Amino acid sequence: MGQRIVFERQPRIVAVSTIAGTKECEGIVGRYVETALADDMFGESTYEKAECKMLSHVIDGAISNAHLARNEVDLIVSGDLLNQIISASFAARDFSVPFLGVYGACSTMAESLALAAAFVDGGYFRHVVAATGSHFASAERQYRYPLELGCTRPPQSQWTVTGAGASLVAGEGDGIRITSATLGKVVDYGITDVNNMGAAMAPAAADTILTHFRETGEEPDAYDLIVTGDLGALGSRILKDLTWEKGLDIGDNHIDCGEIVYNVLEDEFQGGSGAGCSAIVLNSYLHAKMMAGEFHRILFLATGALLSTVSSGQGESIPCIAHAVTLEK
Amino acid sequence: MGQRIVFERQPRIVAVSTIAGTKECEGIVGRYVETALADDMFGESTYEKAECKMLSHVIDGAISNAHLARNEVDLIVSGDLLNQIISASFAARDFSVPFLGVYGACSTMAESLALAAAFVDGGYFRHVVAATGSHFASAERQYRYPLELGCTRPPQSQWTVTGAGASLVAGEGDGIRITSATLGKVVDYGITDVNNMGAAMAPAAADTILTHFRETGEEPDAYDLIVTGDLGALGSRILKDLTWEKGLDIGDNHIDCGEIVYNVLEDEFQGGSGAGCSAIVLNSYLHAKMMAGEFHRILFLATGALLSTVSSGQGESIPCIAHAVTLEK
Fold first, then answer.
1. pLDDT tens-digit profile of B95-130?
2. How do beta strands A159-160 and A272-273 pair?
3. Do A4-170 and A178-328 show the same overall fold?
4. Nearest to residue B280, comparing CAs of B153, B160, B119, B140?
5. Contact A75 B183 (CB under 8 A)
6. Fewer CB within 10 Å, N- or C-terminus of chain A?
């Protein structure tokens, strides 16, 4: 049947909500973010609790922005980068709403959006929230080194975004229509450098993009933008090379959330990463531009690196995945 | 809309596959397991790699048992207990098939089955594999203590099952029909004892069971069995008390996979647990009994404790969830 599913009823994103850290709000995307944190701890005692609170905040925000009561929401689909997706699970505890936990690393925004659209399109539920987020400090502590150690970051590294975003998907109403989803396969080109996620994830993004265009028969110019989640500057160049080699030129309309999320003057090497990266860019900047009529059709992909510290410690390479959704206004 | 979704097309489980460890295969369920391991390392160098190999083995087994080629499978929905669900992600790498990673701790078999059924029922895909597993040694190392330390286990503890199970869900064919799913909310009664998962998870199971019977208007005797995943002996008693207090008597037809998975002579305190527990019981014993006509209608619930070592270390209680699917033959 192919990897692409078409949503005949065209579920729509009727409301969004975003929150981001101090560094993120200095960048290009920052001015579009709904809630700018003055303090990355968000008044909590630990980074993990701050991350969870951000996620809870945007789920609540999306529900409020859709003018719905909590008991009108049928399902929350969410996940995050922390072990056992505690941010999502603990955030869901705040809402008396059915919950499906997902794990797709930084691909979570696209995965949860595809699932939300499928549940609404299938007629199972009316209002579904898709949400994810990440926190720089909790991600560094879990995946790399605690910030307190002051470790040097290599030039191919990216900066995990402190931020969260949520989309409220409904069967009717005014908003951005989700017209299809192309679900990705796990792709592994044998990259083992855990500081070079862009190189590891680019082949997965290329695989899903090539599949999407093969299955639809479209050309890249059918989209105002082909947006990837967090390949960063290096990963984006690799993606363009990989698709070019297969005869698909996406150079004219590809952007990467990781590349645009920070101000160019900020010293974050390849750009932003993390589940929160594509979540805030989609639900603030891209949403605003689509609603304003500047972009009409976007292919939104989020990529995830499906490694753990244990898998890398045991010598494994980094399997990656990318899911895509087609957004139209 | 309520928490229950009805699958009008009644997707069916057309094939299953299971694998289990040496201890598991000595129990009641063991004789129904398809592949009995002679060695819990499964020929691998680490417990995590063995867990991943088990999951890959049953995904492959379910596809073979359905007489399908790998390229006829449209989607794999899977997750496990390890950080970043590496077993599922690395297993999915072996198959060139779209993959959705989920995390619901020990509720994963029910969550993945509900998602697989929704994707088939919605007409998006024809053949979807739902799979999960766990390994005693990798779970102990990650959640508690490495086995090499020889720590004493308290009497309220359960034994994580070494095993994996997969169901192949299709839109047509002979098999067990999945007629509805009741998706659970996150429930937290404030339990903080990480060695007493049964007590933490029982309220989530009770919530989903009470919701299911309230929304359907059925009585418990509409089911041959109401099966929970891994509450264990103590958790099962708490579940029966909690539902009894709310006027629902499930005592006559409730069984728990954790309670039946081991031989009573084995010294595992409250019984089995882990994502693999309900996965092997559903896909071996329960599947065989349903196909043989001994059971006609089962409410299958799997419960998950959504904690991490970090959340417990930061003083958090244990939020839990339970998803249910209705199985008919």
1. 999 999 999 999 999 999 999 999 999 999 999 999
2. parallel
3. yes
4. B160
5. yes
6. N
B-chain residues near A203 (CB < 8 A) = none
Whole-complex ipTM: 0.97
Cα distances (angstroms) measured from residue B70 to each of A142, B63, B73, B127? 35, 7, 6, 10
- Domain B176-328: top CATH class: alpha beta
Q: Which CATH architecture has domain B4-170?
A: 3-Layer(aba) Sandwich (3.40)
In the predicted model, is pLDDT for residue B265 greater than 70?
no
Q: Considering only alpha carbons, which residue of chain A is nearest residue B102?
A: A102
The predicted model scores a pTM of 0.98
Q: Is a pLDDT exceeding 70 seen at residue A266?
A: no
Q: So what's the pLDDT on residue A265?
A: 67
Give CA separation, A169 vs A70, A175, A224, B88, B183, in Å: 14, 9, 22, 28, 18
Residue of B nearest to A77 (CA): B102
Helices (H) and strands (E) in chain A, counts: 10, 14
C-alpha A307/C-alpha B73 separation (Å) is: 24
Please tell me the number of Cα atoms within 13 Å of B147 on its side-chain side. Answer: 9
Nearest residue of B to residue A99 by CA position? B185
User: How far away is chain A from the Cα of B15, in angstroms, using its nearest Cα?
Assistant: 20
**A residues 269-328 near B, CB within 8 Å?**
306-311, 314, 316, 319, 321
Residue spans of the domains in chain B: they are 4-170, 176-328
Residues B11-51: pLDDT tens digits? Answer: 999 999 999 999 999 988 999 999 999 999 999 999 999 99
